Amino acid sequence: MTKMTLGTHPFLLGFDQLERLVERTAKSENGYPPYNIEHVQENAFRITLAVAGFRDDDLSITVENRQLVVRGKQTDDSADRVFLHRGIAARQFQRTFLLADGVDVAGASMEHGLLHIDLARAVPEQVVQTISISKT
Fold it and tell me: Is 40 part of a structural domain of the chain?
């Protein structure tokens, strides 16, 4: 008996890449920076990343092949400082989120060390298409 995967189920035509996308996204989890995903309205979402210590200029937000990519890189200005204890490291990160078709980035803002990225899903028109049957 063979195992039927999500991408090969006969009722899910055209979803063959979904399983690969889920696997790729699950492998990219590293835990930093921590984030929340909120459902703020029927067709609106908000991703909030905890980016304390980062300035606006240290962060970049791009959409590449339906993936939202958030990168952070701090400049290390500790050359002239003497630390007795260093528990806050200047570290870079890259966090990716897979966007569904029709979901777009509506904007981003920074407040109290939290980066908010707002997403909006476009509501598609309800289209009914009638297919005629030709005689052969």
Answer: yes
